[in-house]
Write a structure and sequence with these properties.
Cytochrome P450; iron; 22 helices; 5-stranded mixed beta sheet; Cytochrome p450; single chain; alpha+beta; binds protoporphyrin IX containing FE; 3-stranded antiparallel beta sheet; oxidoreductase activity, acting on paired donors, with incorporation or reduction of molecular oxygen; Cyt_P450_E_grp-I
């Protein structure tokens, strides 16, 4: 039997060049249809790469030792095999995607149908993927094929179908960059619906009403610090992009871990946070092809900046665990004092909502800082930008806040609800959502109906947040900052999805709203604002980047006491 096989191998290796080329070409076509197409291989790029090169090497060795060719001829034959194989795979992929794919009837740029490199090329030019998608919708309509298996759907009905309860979609391979193993990944990377639903409960407890009451005075202390920095710069320009970012991270350090990054005090970025920001550009560009981002992030040293942040979070988590163990022993009935302690508590008590493994716990510790900081800071900066450019709205905001606190800042408390403050925040999140792109989800095998359109199973679909929130069909004066429009609108019924909806919705929403309300109302009560240089105001709009969250350019504002 063994000798029969080895004889067959030798015959195969010694076959004519024409036969070898044909078989290799066919093998390429077959492997596309039997391996690459039916299975989700996005997370296995390195394994495939090494298998490929091992096969190449084995082929050369086989050609020399089994078939008796010289080394040069063996190399030439191996190159012929791989070239023919590659041609088979690539031709099969391109022909299938262009002419036979179930999404072929949906419009979109021809190159986008063939490969995600189309989106990557666009993203690399301006790092504004959300505008690239908006332009595609203007050209091709509501449903656009933005990638070989990706559709962007700019319709309010798609929000319900894709994101809201009952959840019919799962998260796309984009979320599997770390792993698909639920014991090793964060809540945000978890694609399994049941596991995700369970884990979300621990986070919701960490941001429940009782927890928010514990965090509020600590946020207030950070706001006092931010306001003191603004006072130091009174009458002179201060870069609010930078200071809002310092504020966002300082708050999350405190409320997340009871730790202080001291960024507001020092006026500089903590090295761990610098690491996060260094990685953002790569996420913005490479995130368009998730398999490539997953591959590159596994190269040793490629994510060095991010590792600094990972190490910091890991240390904080370990220190925190000791503290939580002591606190639990001493104050049995007391609620945890920060978000990570809620997760540690669930973990220690073996609660079903706890992160399901040590690595998952560590990933959640990182998620906590990352999701809660830049998102909130961007809203604060963007709101101040809009208010500075729209003095009438700022005046209206000041009137609304003064009505509540006629004796000024000494009167100020967080508890009082001021509708106009919320309108300003909602309108800012409409025009400049902190996560501007569509959040990709996978259609279940049986497919999904969106109005009269059938979306085949396995399609990656998303509602483009920025595009739908600026679509003139759904918003009058869609590009105008007009907080008053919210007097007659509800965030639930309008196509407004900055925190997304349903099972995937942001658990930090109420906390973020609390932070932003506090900052905006305090500033309105104490200061007038102006953009330091008008051309900088215009550049602020132009130079923003889509790095999954928005990365904002500097915004120099002048605050003058009222
Ligand atoms: C205005 C500020 C914020 C905005 C616009 C925002 C937006 C979002 C969005 C769009 C998502 C969905 C992401 C996805 O599915 O890929 C999300 C998820 C999440 N956000 Fe926020 N967020 C904000 C503030 C916060 C804060 C302060 C926290 C607190 C730590 C937080 C924690 C989270 C977490 C843990 C998730 C993952 C939820 C899940 O996987 O189910 N966010 N956020």
């Amino acid at each position: 039997m063994a000798s029969g096989l080895s004889h067959a191998l030798v015959v195969a290796l010694q076959s004519s060049l024409q036969a070898t080329t044909t078989v290799s070409l066919l093998a390429g076509i077959v492997s596309h249809h039997l391996v690459f197409r039916p299975f989700e291989i996005d997370g296995y790029a390195w394994q495939l790469f090494f298998t490929y090169f091992t096969a190449f090497f084995v082929l050369i060795v086989g050609n020399v030792y089994a078939a008796g060719y010289s080394a040069t001829l063996a190399l030439v034959r191996a190159l012929l095999v791989t070239t023919a194989y590659n041609t088979g795979v690539i031709a099969s992929i391109l022909i299938y995607r262009a002419f036979f794919h179930p999404l072929r009837r949906f419009p979109g740029p021809f190159l986008a149908k063939l490969s995600r490199f189309y989106a990557m090329d666009n993203a690399a030019k301006r790092v504004k993927a959300y505008e690239d998608i908006q332009n595609l919708h203007k050209e091709y309509g509501d449903i656009v094929r933005v990638g070989p298996r990706e559709l962007s759907i700019n319709r309010p009905s798609a929000i319900r179908a894709i994101y809201e309860h009952p959840t019919r979609t799962t998260r796309s391979p984009w979320y599997a960059q770390v792993s698909n193993d639920v014991t090793k990944i964060s809540l945000n990377s978890t694609r399994d619906l049941k596991v995700h639903k369970l884990r979300k409960k621990a986070w919701e407890r960490g941001f429940g009403f009782r927890a928010l009451a514990v965090y509020a005075p600590r946020v207030r202390a950070k706001i006092d610090l931010l306001l003191s920095k603004i006072a130091e710069h009174s009458g002179r320009p201060i870069d609010m992009t930078e200071y809002a970012m310092f504020f966002g991270f300082d708050v999350m350090g405190d409320v997340g871990f009871s730790k202080d990054f001291h960024m507001l005090e020092s006026g500089s970025e903590h090295p761990a946070i610098k690491g996060v920001h260094e990685s953002m550009l790569a996420i913005g560009v490479l995130g368009t092809a998730p398999w490539l981002l997953s591959m590159i992030s596994k190269v040793p040293g490629a994510a060095a900046g991010f590792s600094r942040f990972t190490t910091w979070c890991h240390q904080q988590l370990q220190e925190k665990r000791k503290v939580v163990a002591d606190e639990m022993a001493m104050f049995k009935d007391q609620d945890p004092r920060d978000v990570i302690s809620w997760l540690i508590k669930a973990f220690n008590e073996g609660d079903s909502s706890a992160p399901p493994g040590e690595m998952a716990m560590q990933e959640d510790a990182r998620l906590l800082i990352i999701t809660g900081s830049d998102t909130t800071s961007a809203v604060i900066t963007n709101a101040l930008y809009f208010l500075a450019r729209n003095p009438d709205c700022y005046r209206q905001l000041q009137v609304a806040v003064e009505e509540q606190f006629p004796r000024g800042v000494n009167d100020w408390t967080y508890e009082r609800s001021i509708p106009y403050v919320d309108y300003v925040i909602q309108e800012t999140l409409r025009l400049k959502p902190s996560v501007p792109g569509g959040l990709p989800r996978v259609v279940p095998p049986q497919g999904l109906m969106i109005d009269n359109d059938f979306i085949p199973g396995g399609t990656v679909i998303a509602v483009p947040t920025y595009t739908i929130q600026r679509d003139p069909r759904f918003w009058h004066d869609a590009h105008v900052f007009e907080p008053k429009r919210w007097e007659n609108l509800s965030t639930e019924n309008a196509p407004w999805i900055p925190f997304t909806r349903g099972q995937w919705a942001c658990p930090g929403r109420n906390f973020a709203m609390m932070e932003i309300r506090m900052v905006i109302s305090r500033i309105a009560l104490q200061y007038t604002i102006a953009i330091a240089e008008e051309d900088l105001g215009k550049r602020f709009d132009k130079e923003v980047k889509d790095t999954f969250t928005l990365t904002l350019p500097p915004l120099r504002l002048v605050f003058s006491p009222k």
